[in-house]
Structures are given as C-alpha cells and as structure tokens.
Design brief:
It is a single chain. This protein is mainly α. It has one domain. 75% of the residues lie in helices and 0% in strands. Helix 6 packs antiparallel against helix 7 and helix 7 runs antiparallel to helix 8. The longest helix has 27 residues.
Length: 212
C-alpha cells in the first residue's frame, strides 16, 4: 500500500511539473484574450456572428505556441512523461466537466440576449459561477493550482466589469476588461515561467564518440 501511495505521489508531482514551463499559461491567456477582443469586433460591420469566428484563430495560435514550445523547448530539456491510468482517468473526468461547463456557458450567453438579460444581475452572476466552478475543477483534477487563481481573478473581474458597465465607465459588460486583464496576466506569468524554465534546464550537450 505504501509503495502504491508513493508511486501515486511521484506521478502527481511529475504531472504538476508539466505546468512549470509556463506554456499552458500562455495558451490559456491567448484563449482568454479572444473573449475580450471579440466583443469589440461585434460593433463593426462583422456583427456578432462573424466576429465570434475570430475566436478560432486565437485558439489556433495558442495551441500552436503550446505545441511548438513543448516540442522544441520542454521535451529536449525534461523529456516526455508517460501518463499512468489514474492520471488518464482524471483527465477524462475533467474533460467531461469542462465540456458541461462550456455548454452551460454557451447556453447562458445565448439566453442573455433573451429574457435572461431582463433579470437584474442574473447573467453576470451565472457566468461568474460557471467560470469559478469550471476553473476550480480544472485546478483540482489537473493539479494546476494557478488555474484556480486565474478563475478566481476572472470571476471577480466579471462582476466588477458588469458594475463598471452599468456605471457607464466601460463597454460590452466589461468583457474586454475582465478577459483582457486575466489573459495578459496569464501570458505574462507564462513568459516569466518559461524564461525561468529555460535557465534552470539547459539543453543537454550530446557527447560524441570517444577519440582514441
């Protein structure tokens, strides 16, 4: 039993180290930025539908940076970690939860244009709950504690943004403010972590054959 516990603890520690390079933070920050930029585009001739498609390039850029960074920076320095069955089960579980919360977010967003928007503070409150719950579950199941902090900060900013919007100080229900600040915070954190990771783990020098 003790040996199994030790193996689980070691796997947990190894999995947590996959977030030490900051690439997940950078990818998350770019994705969050898209939700701050798209509302600004909706007032142009593109409209709500076509402007929402600009989320896809942000997702592509974020994933591209993450994939290239893992291949060219992380793996040459730290190697490739194999995930055990317990960790795979946790990842599968969080994927289900995240899909549920994503669906709830989309439904809430569409409902905001209908009767839901007529109920004072109901939409921002529901959105804040969905964000906090989704990010908290991700932080727990992925052992990615910074995800929880990003979720808490975004939750506060969503409520603050709505308040400032009603005071006439910001536009678009404060979405550019809330998602912009959180996105740039995650990107900045990721860049600092990536720089520290590169300094701490230089690329191993390949030794040539011994000369005689």
């Amino acid at each position: 039993m003790d040996k199994r516990i030790d193996l689980v603890a070691l796997e947990k520690q190894a999995f947590k180290s996959t977030f030490s390079d900051g690439l997940w933070d950078i990818m998350l920050g770019i994705v969050l930025l898209s939700y701050g930029v798209v509302p600004l585009l909706s007032v142009t001739k593109l409209g709500d539908f076509w402007s929402s498609l600009f989320i896809l390039p942000f997702f592509g850029i974020g994933y591209g940076i993450w994939y290239a960074g893992k291949r060219r920076i992380t793996i040459p320095r730290a190697g490739l970690m194999k995930i055990g069955p317990l960790r795979k089960k946790k990842i599968a579980t969080i994927q289900i939860y995240l899909n549920i919360f994503l669906a709830l977010g989309v439904i809430t967003g569409f409902a905001a244009y209908g009767r839901l928007s007529e109920v004072d503070w109901l939409f921002p409150a529901l959105l804040a709950i969905i964000i906090l719950a989704g990010f908290s579950l991700g932080a727990r199941y992925l052992d990615f504690s910074r995800l929880g902090w990003y979720g808490a900060g975004l939750t506060v900013l969503v409520i603050t943004g709505e308040l400032l919007f009603r005071m006439g100080m910001v536009s678009h229900h404060g979405f550019p403010l809330a998602f912009g600040v959180t996105g740039f915070t995650a990107i900045g954190t990721g860049i600092l972590l990536l720089a520290r990771f590169i300094r701490a783990y230089p690329v191993p020098v390949k030794e040539g054959p011994d000369e005689t």
